[in-house]
UniProtKB/TrEMBL annotation:
Protein name: DinB family protein
InterPro entries xref list: DinB-like (IPR024775), DinB/YfiT-like (IPR034660)
Residue ranges of domain DinB-like in the record: 9-144
Organism: Pedobacter boryungensis
Superkingdom assignment: Bacteria
Pfam families: DinB_2
Amino acid sequence: MKNIEISTAARNKLLSHIADLTTDELNYIPTGFNNNLAWQMGHLVVSQQLLCYRLSGNELVIEKELVDLYKNGSKPERYISAAEIEQMKGYLLSTIDQLAIDLEQNLFDNYNPYTISTFPGLTLTSIDDAVAFIACHDGLHYGCCLGLKKLVKMQG
């Protein structure tokens, strides 16, 4: 469960880091970047859902419509509303909490191996691999968000 704790800590830190930003600031895409802080949150939520739930044949615990908006390779094509941002903020923690419950109930026995496109040669072969990768992925994107916030504040 240590990886769950790591993800929870990273996501809580991200939420506190962006708490002072407006909806416009969360939607700002700095020059040379493909996404913004609002997309980063949604991407963390969707990635965890796909890598843990979809790959093990389980139903997602989020709306399926969110997948195409935030999956790997996507970028924000529209202004992300304050309501959707609040939804993503809630999902950042609730989806990790639900994952911990579902892990305890052994819902992930049918895991389909998956090679991570952004890490060539890295194949997730079990839910344990996926949960470990999610913890790393959360930290990676937290770092991205640190830089994005600096650029957001510089433009204002």
